[in-house]
Amino acid sequence: TPEYAGRRRREACIDRKMGAPVSSAYAASKHALMGFYNSLRIELFSYGIDVCTVCPGPVKSNISLHSFTEDVNRSYNQDMKNEGKKQDAGRFAWLMSVAMAARLPESWISIQPYLIYTYIAQYLPTVSQSAIFSLAAQGRIKKFKNKECLY
Questions:
Q1: How many Cβ atoms from other residues are within 10 Å of residue 67's Cβ?
Q2: SS3 call for 77
Q3: Active site residue 26
Q4: Which is the catalytic residue, given 26, 37, 114, 123?
């Protein structure tokens, strides 16, 4: 019925398409959100309400300035905007609005190589679990342990 028509957007990160080393709890929470929103999309369809799930890759932001450390009374207080390959927040916001206007049920918004990894995980799941990703995962775990990579 028209009185309920509308759109609902939710961000869930591309990590939900594949596991990510040093991010198991984070990836699990994103998988749960995707299951919830996939069900919600079906439930709200007859009311004319679209549910658009947006899965962004890494985005440049200053979130780490205020993130917690092992001491909850102290923030991390480091700007990680330029650490690693990340997409511009303005580009992400524009592409997200395009996805919503197009009424896409799900969109992946990222830069390379993260976007191609997402496609491989979606359409070639056996390949994504192969030695290629296992080797990449080992490198990320090693960097994390050496405090070279914090996410």
A1: 14
A2: coil
A3: yes
A4: 26
Residue whose C-alpha is closest to residue 90's, from 115, 62, 59: 59
Burial class (CB in 10 A: 0-12, 13-18, 19+), 140: middle
Q: How many helices (H) and strands (E) does the chain have?
A: 5, 3
Give pLDDT, residue 62: 76
CA separation (Å) from 52 to 2, 72, 101, 103, 122?
Answer: 18, 34, 10, 7, 18
User: Side-chain half-sphere of 138: how many Cα atoms within 13 Å?
Assistant: 6
pLDDT for res 1:
43
Tell me which residues of the chain have a pLDDT lower than 70. Answer: 1-18, 20, 64-70, 75-83, 131-136, 148-151
